[in-house]
Backbone:
């Protein structure tokens, strides 16, 4: 449970014994107290938590129905304390459409990786956006297929080495990294598209704000909202967590610019 | 009403309030009809961007506890197989209609029964079974659709209706059935976790032996279906020298051939499987004690004939007559086959 204590605004020295009344950052009710299975330095854990915080902030946990992807986050339901269904790889927005159309009062979101959303599921995401489905999409872009062993993703940057592009992604051979948000932004059905990152504390705060906005738009019935979260994959980038965070700052976010792509 | 429209009305009568589909001939009348009726009944109709999306929208609606349906014709049904496997794996009820056309590939838009294997032997990946109903009239297109929704909810499993272009587009008078909808509690459905712990819909089972245990549970369910849901019609099976086996629209032609043969003094019977899975193997096996000749007629190169042979298990002669690629066996063709076999 998240507990806030307005009295403890002054920074206290961290003590071994934590007085629960002074906890300002506690585990959200929407997030189970379980061991994390993600690799060290992976962004999924942070993003899971941000979603849960947003859901708790709105008090909508009991209305939420999530659609989990195929990819590293396939067992997202092991972390989330609300209704969740799996979906076939990439069909996530179609499943969310079916749910939201028959249960418009529920809050429906998909959680998708770059393979799920930007490769096998491009058709589903484009048409869900174009229909203006009143759902929220959290799109985690780390530029590789993590679960299957670090293969090239549609979002892999030029020159980036992966299990299937050993000499680096060649634009001539493998084509260009896809900027999904910019693509979706041209569709009138897309009401909100923002790209954020979780590579620093500052960006995490921004990411939380964007995720909250996306949920708020759905709650208000505004239509299709998507937040792309640039995320680290130290394991398949062959980097330390710190190097991975730096790579997003210096390299990934220069190709995929952070900020609001579309808001209306 | 044509068979496709009858199917659509059956879905509405059964309380189906979600349909997603994609245009393909010869099932288009169903999509158009149900689009209109969903609008009139405050249901949801979505013309999906693909067959893949359509079956997965049905997955979502079913997961949310609503009676849901999709339909297509052969090439589109191939695309839906991924979703069907997930629906079966996640134990989600729904109704899938295949108004079969000629194949393989794009084939043509003539009637066909060449998707029998796909429907009854699995179709998608993994060990699963679907109850497969094979209507033979527009009336049955309606009644079987209503029954399909009941069976789907009863077993938490997709139910398949295997029709064909002939049945789908043929106009016949319909007697509107009175439907007594049973209410099925769906405590597993995703409705938001208010007042309960969260529900999870999944077919992913990691860990040693967990998926095998889940498969055993599913197989027990399929065995219950097998014991309980076999349906077939039999004609003159008590005194026949030859028994025809045919389903769907071909069963009607076969019945006419049987009547003609009987009028000519030939002792011919007919077994019409109504459920193609579970297959009426016991009815066929029992008939072997009296009849030593079977003639299976299909609009395919010979698919159901394999199940007839398994049921007969060498105790009688099993012959096959089939037409393919939109060809429909005529009464005369079947009669000719009967006469030839009776002389052997």
Residues:
């Amino acid at each position: 449970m998240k507990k806030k204590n307005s009295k403890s605004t002054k920074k206290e020295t961290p003590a071994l014994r934590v007085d629960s009344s002074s906890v300002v950052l506690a585990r959200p009710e929407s997030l189970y107290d379980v061991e994390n299975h993600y690799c060290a330095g992976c962004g999924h854990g942070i993003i899971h938590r941000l979603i849960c915080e947003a859901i708790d902030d709105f008090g909508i946990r009991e209305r939420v129905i999530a659609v989990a992807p195929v990819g590293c986050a396939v067992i997202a339901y092991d972390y989330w304390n609300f209704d969740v269904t799996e979906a076939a790889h990439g069909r996530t927005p179609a499943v969310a459409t079916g749910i939201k159309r028959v249960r418009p009062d529920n809050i429906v979101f998909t959680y998708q990786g770059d393979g799920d959303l930007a490769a096998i599921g491009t058709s589903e995401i484009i048409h869900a956006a174009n229909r203006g489905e009143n759902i929220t999409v959290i799109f985690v872009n780390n530029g590789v297929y993590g679960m299957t062993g670090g293969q090239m993703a549609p979002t892999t940057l030029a020159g980036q080495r992966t299990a299937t592009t050993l000499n680096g992604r060649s634009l001539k051979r493998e084509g260009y990294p896809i900027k999904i948000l910019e693509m979706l932004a041209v569709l009138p059905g897309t009401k909100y598209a923002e790209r954020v990152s979780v590579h620093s504390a500052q960006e995490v705060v921004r990411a939380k704000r964007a995720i909250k906005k996306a949920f708020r738009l759905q709650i208000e019935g505004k239509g299709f909202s998507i937040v792309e979260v640039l995320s680290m994959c130290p394991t398949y980038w062959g980097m330390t967590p710190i190097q991975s965070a730096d790579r997003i700052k210096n390299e990934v976010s220069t190709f995929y610019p952070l900020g609001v792509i579309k808001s209306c | 009403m044509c068979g496709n429209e009858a199917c659509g009305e059956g879905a509405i009568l059964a309380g189906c309030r979600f349909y997603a589909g994609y245009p393909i001939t010869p099932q288009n009348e169903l999509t158009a009809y149900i689009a209109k009726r969903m609008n009139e009944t405050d249901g949801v109709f979505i013309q999906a961007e693909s067959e893949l999306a359509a079956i997965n929208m049905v997955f979502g609606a079913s997961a949310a506890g609503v009676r849901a349906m999709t339909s297509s014709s052969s090439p589109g049904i191939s695309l839906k197989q991924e979703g069907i496997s997930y629906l079966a794996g996640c134990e989600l009820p729904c109704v899938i209609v295949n108004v079969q056309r000629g194949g393989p590939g794009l084939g043509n838009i003539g009637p066909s029964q060449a998707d029998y294997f796909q429907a009854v032997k699995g179709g998608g990946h993994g060990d699963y079974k679907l109850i497969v109903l094979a209507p033979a009239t527009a009336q049955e297109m309606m009644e079987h659709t209503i029954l399909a929704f009941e069976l789907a909810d009863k077993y938490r499993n997709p139910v398949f209706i295997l029709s064909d272009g002939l049945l789908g587009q043929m106009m016949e008078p319909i007697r509107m059935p009175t439907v007594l909808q049973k209410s099925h509690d769906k405590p597993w459905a995703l409705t938001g976790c208010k007042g309960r712990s969260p529900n999870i819909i999944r077919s992913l089972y990691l860990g040693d032996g967990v998926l095998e245990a889940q498969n055993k549970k599913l197989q027990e369910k399929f065995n219950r279906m097998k014991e309980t849901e076999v349906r077939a019609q039999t004609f003159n099976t008590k005194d026949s020298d030859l028994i025809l086996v045919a389903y769907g629209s071909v069963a009607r032609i076969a019945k006419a051939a049987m009547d003609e043969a009987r009028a000519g003094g030939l002792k011919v019977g007919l077994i019409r499987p109504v459920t193609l899975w579970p297959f009426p193997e016991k009815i066929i096996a029992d008939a072997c004690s009296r009849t030593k000749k079977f003639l299976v007629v299909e609009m395919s190169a010979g698919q159901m004939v394999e199940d007839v042979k398994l049921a007969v298990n060498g105790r009688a002669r099993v012959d096959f007559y089939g037409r393919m690629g939109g060809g429909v066996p005529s009464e005369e063709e079947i009669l000719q086959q009967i006469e030839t076999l009776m002389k052997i």
Observations:
- Chain B touches chain A through 41 residues (CB under 8 Å).
- The mean pLDDT of chain B is 97.
- The CA atoms of residues 16 and 67 of chain B lie 5 Å apart.
- The domain at 3-228 of chain B is CATH 3.40.50.970 (Rossmann fold).
